[in-house]
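Page 47, continued from p. 46.
Same chain as before, 92 aa.
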Amino acid sequence: MKDKRYSAVRSLIKANEIKQFADIFDILPITVVSKDTGTNYNTLYRRVHNPNLLTMDNLLALATAFEIDIMELMPVIVKSLKAKKSGGSKTK
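Result:
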């Protein structure tokens, strides 16, 4: 059974409420997403905190897991990339 937090993330993305890519993982743990997408935990962790490392395969897997179109995920990624470039990202 799919984690119910996916529907919360999907709703927030569709409502343009997610400001940074990493904010998704405040709601839905990286461990859950890594298992569901088949992405190694450490790899996904690095890519969450450095979205410039995301591949098209990663984006497709994430969009599929969130049950959204990849084009709905792209604005979140772009905002994160712009914030990171300007030094305004929330990295841990």
